[in-house]
Every structure is written in structure tokens, then in C-alpha cells.
Amino acid sequence: MYKLAWIVVPALLLAGCSKKQEQPAAKPTYLHNIMKNEVDPRADEVWAVGNAHMDKDAGLNGKSMSDADWAKLASTAEHLKEGAHDLATLPDPITVVPPGGKIAYQDDPGGDKPQAVQHNIDQDPQGVRDLANALAENMDELIAAANKHDAVAAGKLLNGLDGMCEDCHVKYWYPSQKALIDSINKSEGGG
User: What is the pTM of this model?
Assistant: First the structure.
């Protein structure tokens, strides 16, 4: 019996040690998927918290924010930061969509095709990573402001979020619309 134990026990231990470790879920590898499924909806969640508490001067009304609202702002900013990190760490080369894939608005008048967006990204992939990292840093600052219940700082960061998104979109996603956007901004006194 003891001889059998000397064989069976080590064999069982080896079998247990050689068990395959569960692999982490594969990260999305296409830029459009991350934008569509992570960054865009998460940015909307951040804006939803801010918009619900916007004052008449487009700042954040901290007096109307409960502890739960501040926690939600920090949480949504954390989720957006994770999406920005996923963008910044896409494998090289950054690929917009799989072959034959579509992007949002490509068939709309003035919409850019995936090949055009891919070309823009191929011209400056580090710029994509830099903008994604800047977004993640902005969300770190928003998280800190939310944790401190600092409405002034949080309001400025929320107001700057749209411009951060637009900077990337105009350069990479719809540069054909840059002249139109510039003329609108100029007519509204913004540029």
C-alpha cells in the first residue's frame, strides 16, 4: 500500500501542477472595435454624469452632485481610461478593421472609408497612441477631481473631453470634414 502511495501521490501532484492555466480574454485588436465598443459608449457615460449637473455657464454644479454622483463620475472616468489604454496599447501595426470591415458613417455623404482612415493612421501611429494616452491622463485627473469633489477641476476636464475626441477624429477619422468643422468653429467664434 505504501509503495502504491509513493507512485500515486506524486503522479497526482504532477497532474495538478501541469493543469493548463486559464488564459486571459483576448484583447480586441482592431481600433474601430475599441472605439465603438469601449471608448465611445464610455465617453457617453462620463458626459451623462456631467451633463446632468451642468450649470448655466456650462460648468459642473458641484452643489447638485451627491456622493453617489461623484462616485459614478470617478467610475465612468475609470472605464473610459481603460478604453483609452486599450487604444494606446494596440499591437503594431494598428489596424482599423479586419479586411472587408466597415466603420461608422462610411456610407454617409462626407464619410471616410476604412482605407482612408487606415492610411491616416499608418502615417502617424504614434500620434494615435499619444492621443489615447492623453485621454487616459485626462481621465486620471478627472478621477482625482471626482474623488476630491472638486467641481471646478472636474468641469474643466469634462468640457475639454469633447475637444480631445475631436482632435483625434478630425486627424484620423474624418479629415475630409476638417475644413467644414473649421468654418463652423470660425463662424461661432471658436477658431
Answer: 0.80
Taking only the tens place, the pLDDT of each residue in 26-46 is: 666 899 999 999 999 999 999
C-alpha span between 113 and 44 (Å, rounded): 24
Cβ-defined contacts of 164-167 (< 8 Å, 24+):
164/131, 164/134, 164/135, 164/138, 165/43, 165/135, 167/131
Cis bond before residue 93 (omega within 30° of 0): yes
The CATH topology of domain 28-95+113-176 is Four Helix Bundle (Hemerythrin (Met), subunit A) (1.20.120)
For the chain, the structural domain boundaries read 28-95+113-176
Long-range contacts of 5-14 (CB under 8 A, 24+ apart): none
Nearest CA-CA partner of 81 in 8, 144, 11 = 144
> Helix or strand or coil: residue 113?
coil
Task: Encode pLDDT of 132-186 as tens digits.
Answer: 999 999 999 999 999 999 999 999 999 999 999 989 998 998 877 777 777 777 8
